[in-house]
Amino acid sequence: MIHELVTAVNGVLWGWLLIIMLVVAGFWFSFRLGGVQLRQFTHMFSLLKGSSKSDKAGISSFQALCTSLSARVGTGNLAGVAVAISLGGAGAIFWMWVIAILGMATGFAESLLGQLYKVRDSKGEYRGGPAYYIQQGLNKRWLAITFSLCLFLGYGFIFSAVQANSITDALNHAYGIDTFNAGIVIILLAGVIVIGGLRGIARFAEWMIPFMGISYVLVAVGITLYNIEMVPGILANIFSSAFGLQEAGYGALGAAIKHGIQRGLYSNEAGSGSVPHAAASATPNPNHPASQGYVQMLGVFLDTLVLCTCTAVIILLAGGEQGEQMEGIRMTQDAMSFHLGNGGNDFVAAAISLFAFTSVVANYAYGESNLHMFKLDNRTGRSVYTVGYLLMILWGSMASLPHVWALADMALGLMTVINIIAIVWLTPTIVAVSQDYLNQRKRGKEPQYQHGNCEIQGATEDNIWDGGNANKPEQARLKN
């Protein structure tokens, strides 16, 4: 009965409602921010210089980027792309690209807000995210609480189960390792890392993510160059399938759009409201909320337009195509084995284990950030949350793939609906802060944000971060 209820909710959320909301939001912010993802494309790379700086209350911008990529770069990049192709055909990849380009503007907007409305928790560390800017910017505590509950359901529990499912399935397929035993190992390793809190997770991410990403891209580039004569045909197939120009017609077009956007969102998370938690935890460089918008916009680009494309090319070059059943990580493993022989299974098993494990760890940080909303930001609250999180990992390691994906889709969909409404509502603030950043750059200054520079919705001296006084001890505490 629970599965039927989840299916019904997903039917409403993913039956074009979310697709329309995400596309409209992407166009809206692209328009209101002057095509920021295209006009400022090179600037987001330039902010990586000096991005390792932080203060004692936050993590560095580079660590925040790697933490957000840890959550993004997971099953969506390997299993999710395979699901999109198996259900929507090659054309789904085109729509993944579209939602990523539009999502870069949406990601910029939500990450800027995460940094702007961040607060300090009981330990004096930065915390923030949609629940915080909904309560402080819109004064809608009931909506903030609703979002936090959805996030706990999704990132705190279900998404980690999804990632664990892909790890254990990949190891079982490659080596016959029992899923329960693999699940025990995962929770032991995850437990060791999350005990260190956000800083421990950030340190893990800043070393693991560059290694994983570069290694995966190099393998994909090598496979592509080896099969370079097939690439034009693959690209033609993607574009023709994307617009329903093949025999299947409009049915294939609808499937390509739906599954491409759905899996694209699941991978890059733009608009879902997850990434602002990482953005809020950062000590920005330069000292302006918009800088985190640019840094996290880069994360959307790297996740979908780089890493997801690598997986898609690997699968399509191996002859992967739309089928009658949902295919997950095994489709990617089979494709890699086609290219690399017996080592293909080993490579994908290692890749999915690392990719998904980083997501498992980063998801914990997102859930922990919202404990402050419920006054559970204490030892007891963290302990209960940690036990529940680890138990869900163990459950996910042995669960049925379609049921786990369905729960993940529902949680992500509910979060996204609330977050999109909130950030569109806060558009005047996003535009004002972004323009302040650009105006300072035009004057040849390094942007510095101070309270009063812009007209900020819901802003008071007590509930909004003042970039000029970021180290003030009691500054920006959230009033419940």
TrEMBL record:
Region of interest: Disordered: 461-480
Principal cellular location given in the protein's record: membrane
Membrane-spanning intervals of the chain: 12-31, 142-162, 182-202, 209-228, 234-257, 298-318, 347-366, 387-405, 411-433
Keyword check for Isomerase: no
UniProt cross-references to Gene3D superfamilies, sorted A to Z: Amino acid/polyamine transporter I
Keyword list, A-Z: Cell inner membrane, Cell membrane, Membrane, Symport, Transmembrane, Transmembrane helix, Transport
Domain of life: Bacteria
Subcellular localization: Cell inner membrane; Cell membrane
Topological category with respect to the lipid bilayer: Multi-pass membrane protein
Any GO MF annotation of the entry: amino acid:sodium symporter activity
InterPro entries documented for this protein: Na/Ala_symport
NCBIfam families reported for this sequence: agcS (TIGR00835)
Protein's name according to its UniProt entry: Sodium:alanine symporter
